[in-house]
Amino acid sequence: MIVVDANILAYLYLPGENTTRAEALMQDDPDWAAPVLWRSEFRNILTDGVRRGGLTLGQACRIQSGAESLMGGREYHVDSMQVLTLAYEGKCTAYDCEYVALATTLGTRVVTCDKQVLRAFPGVAVAL
To answer: Taking the model in full, what pTM does it have?
Structure first.
């Protein structure tokens, strides 16, 4: 099992330069987990795609539904005190630290492309 941030899910569902790597990650380890927060972040990514004209609202809804099916049963609530402590110590956003907290709790790694998270948490965060 690995924890993935919302951007990794976006790379899987939205064709782009990181799509091939996200697909390879899914093939190598299909047991993905994320904090419940991923839904809001992913919806925001899709909303941006609709506003920029790259997606229709219907496409965004279908992609959201597919991602929710993929992540069903693998969404977790995280401890607020742990998130706040990680955000303070790592100087990262609380949003990003939700993924780090979950990976720590599950005894696994978080896969991300976020350079700040990769620098702050090298023992837990790994690059896509």
So the answer is: 0.94
